[in-house]
Amino acid sequence: MPTATPTSLRDTLQRARKTRRISQLELALRMGVSQRHVSFVESGRAQPSRELLLAWLHELQAPLALRNVALQQAGFAPVYSGSELGAAVLAPAREALGRLLDAHDPLPAMVMDAAWNVLQMNRGALWLATTLMPWLAELPAGQPINMLDAMLHPEGMTRHITNLDEVAPALLAHLRDDASVVPELQPRVEQFAEQLQARLGKRALAPWPRQMAPVLTTRFATPHGELAFFSMFSTFGTPQDITLASLRVEHVFAADAATRAVLDAQLAP
């Protein structure tokens, strides 16, 4: 079931702390206040100052949108704005994103928001997506792509992963971490977990092992042979806009020379 939006400051602060798996004592030590005061604020018996509340939410690395909600619940004005990505004020950020995508080409790279909506893709990402999921090319022009929905599709990219037993636990852990911050993702994430288990059959969807190779390589069976990739994510440093705070760039790298050769051949200028 979807997680309800917190309706009180007490609920917001408790959920934010538990999401980060931080105890009241640890949070108190970080902020330089007593555990008793943290307990009183979380129970609604004490009201935090604006400065304490901002420090509290900063220590919990709460999303900027949630920080605004908590401030309003406490009777303070929100601090963070949320501009459309196309707004003039975000032009330098858009240029930076475009440069990142272009510089990574022909290797795939894409910009996604916290809900896994794809906002921008370079040539490599578009080629890889349509190679693994040809039905994407049939979508109406301009229709947004949500990568979680694309993975849930009966012909989603996970059908082509040859080492799914290695990749599934890590991918699911990543998605569940995101759903802890964006609760509306939770029903689809759990649906995806069921889909993964069905595809693995009797093989258990075990917890993600911590002793493994330096990077997790995902291997796909494609018409061009097996392609192997690993990913790296980048985000804006100390964003002060809700939209920018939600964005991340996924940079996909070829894990072997054969994969790089296919990309170079398929995406030659």
Helix content: 40-55%
If strands are numbered along the chain, what order do they take across the biggest sheet? 3-2-1-6-5-4
What is the distance, rounded to the nearest whole angstrom, between the alpha carbons of the first and last residues?
48 Å
Structural class: alpha+beta
- The unreliable regions are none
Order of helices and strands: HHHHHHEEHEHHHEEHEH
Q: Report the count of strand segments.
A: 6
| Binned strand content | 5-15%
Mean pLDDT: 90
Rg, nearest Å: 21 Å
Largest sheet at a glance?
A: 6 strands, antiparallel
Count up the helices: 12
Shape: globular
3D architecture notes:
The chain has 12 helices and 6 strands. The protein starts with 8 loop residues before the first helix and ends with a helix. The chain has helices at residues 9-19, 24-31, 35-43, 50-59, 64-73, 91-104, 123-132, 147-152, 164-181, 186-200, 242-245, 257-266, and strands at 109-112, 117-121, 145-146, 218-222, 225-234, 248-254. It has 269 residues and is α+β, with helices and mostly antiparallel strands. It has a 6-stranded antiparallel sheet, with helices on both faces.
Features:
single chain; 269 residues; alpha+beta; six-stranded antiparallel β-sheet; 46% helix; globular
Summed up, what is this model?
The chain is of the alpha+beta class. 46% of the residues lie in helices and 12% in strands.
Please write out the topology:
Blueprint: H1 9-19, H2 24-31, H3 35-43, H4 50-59, H5 64-73, H6 91-104, E1 109-112, E2 117-121, H7 123-132, E3 145-146, H8 147-152, H9 164-181, H10 186-200, E4 218-222, E5 225-234, H11 242-245, E6 248-254, H12 257-266
Antiparallel strand pairs: 1-2, 1-6, 2-3, 4-5, 5-6
Helix pairs in contact: 2-3, 9-10
